[in-house]
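sorry to bug you again but im stuck and you know this stuff better than me. below you get a single protein, a line of residues and a line of whole numbers that encode the local backbone shape. mainly i need to know what kind of three dimensional shape the backbone takes. anything you notice is useful, everything is just below:

***
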Amino acid sequence: MRRRDVIKALAGAVAATWPLAVRAQQRAAEPIVGFLTTELKTQKLLVDAFRQGLAQVGFVEGKNVDIEYRSAENQYDRLALLADDLVRRQVAVIFANTSTAAALAAKAATTTIPVVFTAGADPVKYGLVASFNRPGSNVTGVSFLTSQLAAKQFEVIHQLLPSASLIGVLVNPANPYAETDTKDIQDAARLLNQSILVLNVDAERDLDAAFATYVAQGARALIVPGDAFFYNRRDTVVALATRYALPAIYAQREFVDGGGLMSYGANLFEANRIAGGYVGRILKGEKPADLPVEQVTKLEFVLNLKTAKTLGITVPLSLLGSADGVIE
């Protein structure tokens, strides 16, 4: 081969490989977001909402931002180790998904990497931030109500089933805030002079036995409070409620979308979308301390009339008229 042809061939090879090398360097330079959650495989909707929020401020996963996912698989004691792993990975931001426990684990793991959370508990009460308006540290996020809904949920059940003398309540004792949430539920029941049966369940294998106990003890309805453990197993919980013909009210509409009877609570999709936007703003240079904690204050009541018919329940017009969403 002539010298000129060799040089031309080498030049062509360099031209072919150069874009690949540049793209690799660009990919390496993209910011990485750590996604910390109690469980991942059943949370596609919430992941999509988070990505949507990121995209609204110009960040698309796989294009100009990468996301490292870390799931505790519903073992809360793993959250601290996973948060530490994200810190060692030197992510640009940690997002703690719909869990106060995950948010606290991320906050404990770093004082320098920004942390954005979505959580149902009061973030000031549990030490995540100094105040809603002035978070005051590397942590900010989105707060939605889950722990203060019991009174309204009891009220809805009374409207639907006024003769229900005993109402069951599912509680996850592994949740660090189970004791506080249970007290709120007991206080709400006491105000309405309502008898309740609280059962602790923190393993999926015990759910069936819990529902059987409710029916055996004469419970006429069930409250499933907002908790990641139950949310991540919503298909199982809804199926058991149907099998045992136990009318139930949940804290998230995803239960109702999956065949549950009714829900009253905050919109988690909206909370995660807002949080995604916050992460994007931080990636662009804003500081968590300057971003006030957002509050998803709008609560929605959703009814599934198809499930009501299956359970043989006639929904009063007054209750039907107050629904924000009706599935027929």
